[in-house]
Design a protein that fits this description.
By secondary structure, this protein is α/β, with parallel strands linked by helices. It has 14 helices and twelve strands. It has two domains: about 130 residues, Alpha-Beta Complex (Aspartate Aminotransferase, domain 1), CATH 3.90.1150; about 230 residues, Type I PLP-dependent aspartate aminotransferase-like (Major domain) (Aspartate Aminotransferase, domain 2, 3-Layer(aba) Sandwich). About 40% of the residues lie in helices and about 15% in strands. Bound molecules: pyridoxal-5'-phosphate. Pyridoxal-5'-phosphate binds next to helix 5.
């Protein structure tokens, strides 16, 4: 059977955007069918025709998320401080809009998920880039030096997209001290939390350092771990009173509301999806290790730290012939779609982000093309 037949049958942007001749290893979707109970919960609403003002699943979102993070990450979150949004970025921008002014600085640790940078820029705020240190560790001194009076907020990714690192409690403590010194609001996007790859476990930002609890907005969703991006549903837990007050002063309609289908799918993921998630995590570990082993054996010029969470590989291709934007060259000349490194920060030339959440067969096809392009000395 054609290993690509399932992915080519899907409407998702991952495989549709570049057409059937390109192998898609870019946007953060997995090539695995979601847990069946999620589809069942969604089609149950449709089959019963229960599509009036049906808030049953929406009403369950906050307690179900609280129960999930308690069970999986030992984290106590207060349902009274939760607000639902149509996505993690929706929540982040909603917080930035009401608590900062145009021109204010928002810190990101680069390389960083490029959509954070776009959101800060399109909101008219200033991107304050703090490069991660050796091994993609948080550099608290660099963070401190980068902050000035106009710096008001941090967009934080824990676990980190694109490197797959999980910041340690020690790193979070140092980070928390600097955030407190400059009185920053910390928006901690934890949508990758449930994909920590054992022996690594998720370290919630507010759990890593208690001093962060009162200044952090923790954002979670089932979207990454259960492959449900199209459901458009995320929840923010707000520790920072400034954000609570500002949101309370707005009409709730500004925040919108996920659909009954989104909520039902999300609740089903947390209620029934754990066995599926465990199998998926095991597959991701096998894929990560296979990728590392093949790259080390076949193209040692490609460097990559093994992901501690998630399914992204942040590839250092600076020692190859692929130039400053390897993803552009690989797309044009090798039929491979990765994300462009330079989108992830000004220190990211020569890098590319790859997605290894796919079947072993497709992963080998992707690695074959990458190795072939590098051995052939492909240039821009
Ligand atoms: C760190 C991070 N935050 C947010 C998102 C997007 O989340 P949403 O679709 O809920 O806005 C992604 C998607 O890959 C992500 O990696």
């Amino acid at each position: 059977m054609d290993p690509l037949s399932r992915v080519h049958s899907l409407d998702g942007v991952k495989w549709k955007k570049y057409g059937p001749d390109v192998l898609a290893s870019w946007v953060a979707d997995m090539d695995f069918a979601p847990a069946p109970q999620i589809g069942e919960a969604i089609s149950d609403i449709a089959q019963r025709g229960d599509m009036g003002y049906n808030f049953a699943a929406l009403d369950r979102l906050h307690p179900e998320w609280a129960a999930w993070v308690k069970r999986c990450h030992g984290l106590d979150l207060d349902t009274e401080r939760m607000t639902t949004f149509t996505g993690a970025l929706h929540a982040m921008e909603a917080a930035m809009d009401v608590t900062t002014e145009p021109g204010d600085g928002v810190v990101v640790f680069t390389p960083i998920y490029h959509v954070f940078i776009n959101a800060i820029r399109s909101g008219g705020r200033r991107v304050v880039e703090v490069p991660l240190g050796a091994g993609y560790t948080l550099d608290a001194d660099a963070f401190d030096r980068a902050c000035d009076e106009g710096t008001k907020m941090v967009f934080f990714s824990q676990p980190h997209n694109p490197t797959g690192r999980v910041y340690t409690p020690d790193e979070l403590q140092a980070f928390g001290r600097v955030a407190a010194k400059h009185d920053l609001i910390v928006i901690s996007d934890e949508v990758w939390a449930d994909l920590a790859l054992p022996p690594y476990g998720h370290v919630p930002t507010v759990g890593g350092d208690p001093s962060l609890a009162d200044r952090t907005v923790t954002i979670g969703s089932a979207s990454k771990a259960f492959n449900l991006a199209a459901l458009s549903c995320a929840i923010a837990h707000v520790g920072d009173q400034r954000v609570i007050d500002a949101w309370e002063a707005q009409s709730a309609h500004v925040h919108g509301r996920p659909s009954a289908f989104s909520a039902a799918g999300t609740v089903a993921a947390w209620e029934h999806g754990e066995p599926w998630l465990n199998e998926t995590v095991a597959q991701l570990i096998r894929n990560r290790d296979h990728l590392s082993a093949r790259l080390a054996a076949e193209t040692p010029a490609v460097k990559c730290i093994p992901a501690e969470a998630g399914y992204l590989a942040w590839l250092d291709l600076r020692a190859t012939s692929l130039g400053d934007d390897p993803a552009a060259v690989l797309l044009e000349k090798a039929g491979l779609a990765f994300n462009s490194g330079p989108d992830f920060g000004s220190n990211c030339e020569g890098f590319a982000r790859m997605n290894f959440a796919t079947t072993p067969e497709i992963l080998d096809l992707v690695i074959d093309r990458l190795v072939h392009a590098i051995k052939a000395g492909v240039t821009p």
